[in-house]
Design goal:
This protein has about 325 residues and is an alpha/beta fold. The protein is built from 13 helices and eleven strands. The strands form two sheets. The chain has an eight-stranded parallel beta barrel, surrounded by seven helices. It has a two-stranded antiparallel ribbon with strand order 5-6. Helix 1 packs across helix 2, helix 2 runs parallel beside helix 3 and helix 3 packs across helix 5. The model has no long low-confidence stretch (mean pLDDT about 95).
């Protein structure tokens, strides 16, 4: 079973307050995007003009104001700020209210969203990964069983039932930037999520083969796992503006080791000022043909769900422009 081409929009909760973000998302459905994915941050990448609306209540508002788009988190961490049993209850409710439109995208987390809020020591990747694996098992159990007994290494549930849950469980998509989590997506995920702009070899030689390896080891169909990628795009008829728009997202261009222990958005913002090429992670273009060529490698690798993240403040113009000039070309050629 292979997936149809889906083209989505990333709702930047770090850049906009909940109401403007909702208006943009409604527009994304109106102009023909297939999905809307929202980040789940407690703190944004920058303090100045920063935002961080709560993803789960925002998704409920989105569901009420739209009728068609798929809605997901890209990504939520179900292991620290949120107990997985609460995530199970929240997404079961969303699944009942908006049947077959909700996706739970999960990841191992970032210290800036967890450490300041619950005052923990940020664990090594191995523990974070084990927590995510255990949380996934528990969430699925709560979606399919009653009076759940669960005694894991990290989470303990005794006689718990999620009473309101959809007939068809909400799909779980696993976010991965390395092979360990990508293999887990293949073993356990309904979908796999990654982000663009890290060198095509990472996807071709490491991440996608790891998803396949995980799927085959578990006796699962690799093609049935939806391959989702957040594609960072700055597409504007004014090339200078396309470059400038990337500047507020400069923190994304910092090396991972420069971000891991930063818990303060003001400090992250200051570190980002040292970035010489803030547009390094973005596909920047003022030409339709060039932009299609920039996106093509991801489609040819087998990604079938592309979620476009635009950096500018004028998201309405981006949504109109992209839906008129880019989405039809992608659907015609790869749909």
């Amino acid at each position: 079973m292979s997936h149809p081409l889906r083209l989505g929009w990333k709702a930047s909760a770090e850049q906009f307050g909940p109401r403007p973000l909702l208006d943009f998302a409604i527009l994304a459905e109106e102009v023909g995007f297939d999905s809307v994915w929202v980040s789940d941050h407690y703190q944004p990448w920058r303090h100045t003009d920063g935002h961080s609306p709560f993803s789960m209540s925002w998704l409920a508002a989105l569901g009420e104001r739209t009728s068609r788009v798929l809605m997901g988190t890209s990504v939520l961490t179900p292991t620290f700020r949120y107990h997985p049993a609460i995530v199970a209850q929240a997404f079961a409710t969303l699944g009942v209210m908006y049947p077959e439109r909700v996706i739970l995208g999960i990841g191992t987390g970032e210290s800036m969203n967890e450490v300041p809020v619950i005052g923990i020591e940020w664990p090594e990747f191995r523990e974070r990964f084990r927590r995510m694996s255990e949380a996934t098992r528990l969430i699925r159990k709560l979606w399919t069983e009653e009076f759940v007994e669960f005694d894991g290494d990290f989470y303990h549930v005794h006689g718990a039932t999620v009473y309101d849950r959809p007939e068809k469980p909400v799909p779980i998509y696993v976010g991965a930037s390395g092979e360990v989590a990508a293999r887990f997506a293949g073993r356990q995920g309904d979908g796999f999520i990654c982000t663009s702009g890290k060198g095509i070899e990472l996807y071709k030689d490491k991440l996608l083969p790891a998803v396949r390896e995980g799927a085959e080891a578990a006796g699962r169909d690799f093609d049935a796992i939806e391959k989702t990628i957040e594609v960072k795009v700055s597409f504007d008829p004014d090339r200078v503006r396309a470059d400038e728009d990337c500047r507020i997202w400069a923190a994304l261009a910092l090396p991972a080791e420069d971000k891991v222990d930063v818990h303060n958005p003001l400090e992250m913002e200051q570190r980002a000022t040292r970035v010489k090429d803030p547009g390094r992670r973005w596909l920047i273009s003022d030409s339709v043909d060039e932009h299609i060529e920039q996106i093509r490698p991801y489609l040819e690798l087998g990604f079938t769900h592309l979620v476009f993240h635009a950096p500018g403040n004028d998201q309405a113009s981006f949504l109109h422009r992209y839906s008129e000039l880019i989405l039809p070309r992608l659907r015609e050629r790869w749909g």
